[in-house]
Write a structure and sequence with these properties.
6-stranded mixed β-sheet, 2 domains, Purple Acid Phosphatase, chain A, domain 2, alpha/beta, 14 helices, 15% strand
């Protein structure tokens, strides 16, 4: 038995290329190498989204035929990190556990697991996730149980309906239909990334990101929304109207399939952006939404009223900013997130601590039952500037960059005492525990 476990997730190692977002090979390699030098035996749990297959060139979906090739291209682009993993794995008493996430479900495949084991020189001795409990429709919550199964480590996508990976299907037939959240990455974000690399620095939440993506490229985003949710501009306008005037008969013929969680969230965000405007102005913007040419960012396609803060583009930006500020809890390490609320309903009473990743927001919450920790991320996260909304919009349109932060966080579990702590690394890979 190891003396402790270290949980790292959401590192998003991808192949070299225009979609790469991870920038901290040296700090991460230094951190792992230092773990190998410490006297305590350690289980290093790579908690999902450690690899990012969606960053591979030409990615259009899960494909087991090229999964090994894609993994090897990722490993070849991060030799320093893999050398550190091999050094760690070589030390007697250390263990390595690999969990899958929604950006790397390919690690469930035997061929990718074998390649990973070869890369770190631990053939046949790496641990992998197991079903911890069965939830709705026979679907399981997968992960790693510690401390006699009182501490559970999961990636967390099981609590996110837009990003939930069907692990049973992959293990049964070797393939899967990816969730809508994965399609958002390779159908929309990856197309915007070459000219707007900061789109990957957004919080990975549908509620906040969709108004911005509509602003950046209306056609691309609407095509995605129609394909995955059956949502058209007409349906969206009717939903917005129903939220602005609940008693109105407008929108009562809204097709039932458009009333998805995502459609409701998007309509709520856009109605929030209209709520402070005079009724005539709101009606004008709604009428123009269907004729709005897009994409608008820096293209000059938006009608001249954009400059006076009352164009469709400004409306979308205002909606995005207002929603982000209303829901901003990303760096509130002692406040629960929506993931915790959804996952806790799946947990049996014996679980005292839940550790997840996925949201990129580090968490250490001891006053809840069960206690909750989130291992955060090692990629840059954009922080919206303070100030009046209209000034922030002006600055964003002028190309002024926002502040970036890299959490570089992890979770440590002392197996004997069952103490759990949130840790943070500096740019030299030196760890500090809270």
């Amino acid at each position: 038995m190891t003396a402790r476990a270290i949980i790292l997730s959401d590192v998003h190692l991808g192949p070299a290329g225009p979609l790469s977002v991870f920038e901290d090979d040296s700090p991460l390699a230094a951190f792992i190498s230092k773990l190998a030098q410490e006297p305590s035996s350690t289980e290093l749990i790579l908690g999902g989204d450690v690899f990012d297959f969606l960053q591979c060139p030409g990615y259009v979906g899960f494909d087991q035929r090229v999964a090994e090739e894609r993994f090897l291209s990722i490993a070849a682009s991060h030799t320093e990190v893999f050398q550190a993993l091999a050094t760690f794995a070589k030390r007697k008493g250390n263990e390595v556990t690999l969990l899958s996430g929604n950006h790397d479900p390919e690690v469930l495949l035997p061929v990718v697991r074998a390649a990973f084991e070869r890369e770190i020189s631990r053939p046949g001795t790496v641990r992998y996730e197991q079903p911890l409990c069965t939830g709705e429709e026979g679907r399981s919550l997968w992960g790693r149980g510690l401390c006699e199964d009182t501490v559970w480590v999961v990636h967390g996508d099981r609590g996110d309906s837009q990003n939930d990976i069907h692990r049973e299907e992959i293990l049964r037939v070797g393939g899967t239909s990816l969730p809508a959240g994965s399609h958002l990455v390779f159908q929309v974000l990856s197309k915007l990334h070459p000219t707007k690399p900061w789109v990957y620095e957004l919080k990975p939440e549908f509620e906040t990101v969709l108004p911005l993506l509509l602003y950046l490229d209306k056609d691309l985003t609407l095509s995605y929304l129609q394909e995955h949710y059956g949502l058209t501009l007409t349906m969206l306008r009717n939903l917005i109207l129903s939220k602005l005037s609940p008693e109105s008969t407008l929108g009562t013929n809204q097709p039932k399939e458009a009333h998805t969680e995502v459609a409701e969230q998007l309509a709520s965000a856009l109605s929030l952006g209209l709520s402070s405007l005079p009724q005539m102005q709101s009606e004008l913007l709604l009428a123009r939404l269907g004729r709005w040419p897009g994409p608008s960012f820096g293209s000059g396609a938006e009608p001249p009223t954009l400059a006076s803060h009352d164009g469709v583009g400004r409306w979308l930006l205002r909606s995005w900013l207002s929603t982000v500020r209303r829901t901003e809890r990303f760096l509130a390490e002692d406040e629960p997130d929506e993931l915790y609320q959804k996952l806790r309903s799946l947990l049996p009473p014996r679980v005292q601590v839940l550790i997840a990743g996925h949201t990129h927001g580090p968490r250490a919450i001891l006053h809840k039952v069960p206690a909750y920790f989130n291992s955060g991320t090692w990629i840059p996260i954009g922080k919206l500037p303070d100030g009046e909304l209209e000034q922030v919009i002006d600055n964003l349109e002028a190309g002024q960059p926002w502040t970036r932060t890299v959490p570089r966080t992890f979770v440590e579990v002392d197996i004997a005492s069952r103490q759990v702590k949130l840790g943070r690394c500096d740019e030299n890979g030196t760890a500090n525990l809270a």
